[in-house]
Amino acid sequence: MIASTFRAMRDVLSPEFRSILWKAIGLTLLVFVGVLAALWVGSAALLVLPWPWLDEVIAGAASLVLLVVFFFLMAPVTAIFAGLFLDTAADIVEVHHYSGDPKGNPPSAWSSALMGLQFGLLVLAVNILVLPTVFFGIGVAIMLMANAYLLGREYFTMVAMRHMPRRQAANLRKINAGRVWAAGLVPAGLALVPFLNILVPLFSTSYFVHIFKKIAMDQRTA
After folding, report:
1. Torsion-angle region of 48 (φ positive above 0: left; ψ -120 to 50: alpha; else: beta)
2. For site-directed labelling of 116, which of 25, 31, 63, 79 has its Cα 20 to 30 A away?
3. 137 dihedral zone (left: phi>0; alpha: psi -120 to 50; beta)
4. CA 188 – CA 207 distance, rounded (Å)
5. Taking 70 as the threshold, does the pLDDT of residue 213 lie above it?
6. Where do the H-state alpha helices sit in 47-176?
7. CB 208 within 8 A of CB 183
C-alpha cells in the first residue's frame, strides 16, 4: 500500500492528471456560480419587502448559506464530474506503469457518467448520515471506516471492470475484501482533509490501479 500511495501521488502531480482535475473543478465552479446567480436573481425578484435593507440582508444570508453548502459539497460534486474522466486517468496510469500488460477496456461514456453520479451521491449520502456522530467524538473514526469501505469497493470494482466482467470483478473484491478495505483507508483519510479531498477521485483511480495490479499478480502466482 505504501508503494501504491507514492506512485499514485506522483501520478496525481503529473501534467495529464492536473489537466483532468482542472476540468472537474471548472465544471463544479460553473455549477455553483450558476446556482448562486440564480438564487441572487430569484431572491431579488421574489422578495419585495417594505424595507430595502431587509431584502439585502436576506439575499446576503442566502448567499452565505450557499457558500457553506459549497464548502460541504465541493468534494462530492467534483467527484461526480471527475467520474467522467476516470477511465482516461486509468488509461494514463496503465500506459505509464504497466505498458506490458493487456490494456483495459473502458465502459461506455454513459456508464462512466452514471458511475460517477452514483458514486458522488453515495459518498454524499453516507457522509450526511455519519456527520451527527462527530458530536459524540467518534464521528471521524466512523467516517474514515465508512469511506474506506465505499472508496475501496467502488474504485477497485471500477478498475477491475476494465479487465473482467462486473460479476467477476465483484467476486475478486469480495475474496480480497479485507485487503481492499485496508487500502481504502488511505484515500478515506485524504477525503477528510478540506481542499485536498478534491484530489480523491483521481488519486483513488491511480491508487487502485496499482492495488488491482498487485492483487491480480498475487492471484496468478498463488
Report:
1. beta
2. 63
3. left
4. 12
5. yes
6. 52-82, 86-97, 109-130, 139-160, 166-175
7. yes
- Tell me the longest C-alpha to C-alpha distance in the chain: 78
Q: Which residue has the cell 501520478?
A: 11
Q: What is the distance between the alpha carbons of residues 182 and 152, in angstroms, rounded to a whole number?
A: 8
pTM for the model stands at 0.76
pLDDT in tens, 146-161: 888 888 888 898 899 8
Mean pLDDT of 198-212: 89
**Contact assessment for residue 83 and residue 51, using Cβ atoms and an 8 Å cutoff:** no
Owner of C-alpha cell 457553506: 68
For 38, residues 6+ apart whose C-beta sits below 8 A from its C-beta are none
The cell numbers describing 14, all together, are 503529473
The torsion region of residue 170 among left (phi > 0), alpha (psi -120 to 50) and beta comes to alpha
> Regarding predicted confidence, which is higher, 86 or 173?
173
What pLDDT digit, counting tens, does each position of 26-68 carry? 877 787 777 767 766 666 555 555 666 566 666 667 667 666 6
Separation of alpha carbons 199 and 82, rounded Å: 10
Which are the contacts of 54, defined by CB distance < 8 A and separation ≥ 6? none
List the one residue out of 136, 176, 169, 140 whose CA is nearest residue 154: 169
Q: Cβ contacts of residue 66 below 8 Å, gap of 6+?
A: 32, 35, 36, 39
